[in-house]
Amino acid sequence: MANTKSSLKKVEKAVEIEAYGKSRKDAIGTALGKIRNESYAAVGDGVLVDVHAVDVCILEEEEKTKIQKLFGYFLPKEVQDYYVKLRVTLEIKYL
């Protein structure tokens, strides 16, 4: 077998991602779902092989609770919105 050089390239990149959701779990899940787009942007014309999160830091998180009423008077309902901003360090392998 001939001695061949690997074509696999590896890059480490930190990205900041913001997302909103109905709960903390939804907001973080939405933010982590955006990693794929960031990975493709980092690779450019290469073929993405593997993306691995090395580190995740929560930079900001905020929970907002509002009272929503039908026509301003009827059926008050509590609505929660959750905001999260993450810094994710990715290890990206591509060809």
Description:
It is a single chain. The protein has 95 residues and is of the alpha+beta class. The chain has one domain: Dodecin subunit-like (2-Layer Sandwich). Helix content is 20%, strand content 60%. A three-stranded antiparallel β-sheet has the order 1-3-2. The radius of gyration is 20 Å and the shape is elongated. The two termini are 22 Å apart.
What's the number of helices?
2
Structural class: alpha+beta
Mean pLDDT: 87
By CATH, the architecture is named 2-Layer Sandwich
- Total of domains: 1
What is the topology, as strand order, of the major beta sheet?
A: 1-3-2
Rg calculated over all Cα atoms: 20 Å
H/E series = EHHEE
Give the termini distance in whole angstroms: 22 Å
Shape: elongated
Indicate the low-confidence ranges by residue numbers.
none
**CATH uppermost class:** Alpha Beta
Strand fraction equals: over 45%
Q: What level of helicity do the residues show?
A: 10-25%
Got a strand count? Answer: 3
Described by strand count, sense and barrel closure, the largest sheet is: 3 strands, antiparallel
The CATH topology assignment is: Dodecin subunit-like
